[in-house]
Amino acid sequence: MNQRIAIGVTVDPLTIRVGDQLLLAGQAFTVADMTATPRGGRRLEFTSGESFTMRAHTVHYATRTIRPTPGTTGARSGRPHPRTR
Fold first, then answer.
1. pTM recorded for the entire structure
2. Among 5, 11, 66, 69, which residue is least crowded by beta carbons within 10 Å?
3. Per the domain annotation, does 49 fall within a domain?
């Protein structure tokens, strides 16, 4: 099964990943590449060609696309939640 879902995550320079999508100034940007900067930051390169520097303590919300593992999709797994039995 190749199903993927989008989730919202809080990211900082240590947790940001290639493929994450950030909303900056009302526009969505997808991270294509990144490099470490002095003092713990990251320079993000986006698929559109723009770049953005996250300083060491910068925190943003991002959208991350993941593949759910079997049994973690809740009601769609066909099993009731343990507390509802």
1. 0.74
2. 69
3. yes
